Amino acid sequence: MSTRKAIFITGGASGIGRAIALYFGQRDWFVGLGDVDTFGMEVTMDMIGHGFVFQHKFDVRDRAAWDEALESFSTATGGRIDVLANNAGIPLGGALEENSVEEIERCLDINLKGVLFGAQAAYPYLKKTAPGSCLLNTASAAGVYGTPGASVYSATKFGVRAITESLDGEWAEDGIKVRSIMPSFIDTPLLDHNPNAKSNEDIRSRVTEAGLEITPVEEVAKAAWDAVHGEKLHTLVGKTARQLAFGARWMPGRVRKQTRESARPLGK
């Protein structure tokens, strides 16, 4: 088995996935990228700038495609995968009654089923490189307290949090770490998307209007590194996420009141 550690990252063509890829790549890891965006993965590869990088186009909703992607990456790395970063995800905002069946199912399938399929497919590889291997899931501050105007998205991120906690217990005897990062609003291209098909206002505008902090994506990459190498089960990223977690634990009544007062949903 190769001595160079290896990480496979879904959603590696942009945003948080790209930032994680660069951070680990700069620290001499073998980086694998998975995404449906081939051009974006090629840009990420060029930015990493060394030969220990790999890309595989696939859809995280396809369980069989996961096996093919990870087997190909394992072959490229000389037989090892130390970290799977289950990062691929899509936003969905707006009042629930505005969300189409197609939008709801797509968000659930990518953000939740994709994470479960990734964990299942990665397990034998992570067990092989344990102890010290890690499943790293990208959750969200929306998994700390439900966000008005993002009920489906919040449900998926609460689910990712639950998967992380469940597998932390399930895989402990195998020596596999299971961790999540829980960022708030991160400065990535996703903020420039409309929250749903009926909205004509991008997410960034709503976040700015609400006076919320937009966290540099580099902070998420560092948090990912710290999560993989540390002992914290969930790593909060950004001032907004930390404040929300504090309030939900120690002042739940206040958080509920503020949430209800600010409940003009994204996309309305």
Automatic annotation (TrEMBL):
Which SUPFAM superfamilies does this one have?
NAD(P)-binding Rossmann-fold domains
An example of a Pfam family matching this protein is adh_short
Per the record's keyword annotation, is Oxidoreductase included, yes or no?
Answer: yes
What domain of life is recorded for the organism?
Bacteria
Which keywords label this protein?
Oxidoreductase
Recorded family membership: Belongs to the short-chain dehydrogenases/reductases (SDR) family.
Q: Can you name this protein?
A: SDR family oxidoreductase
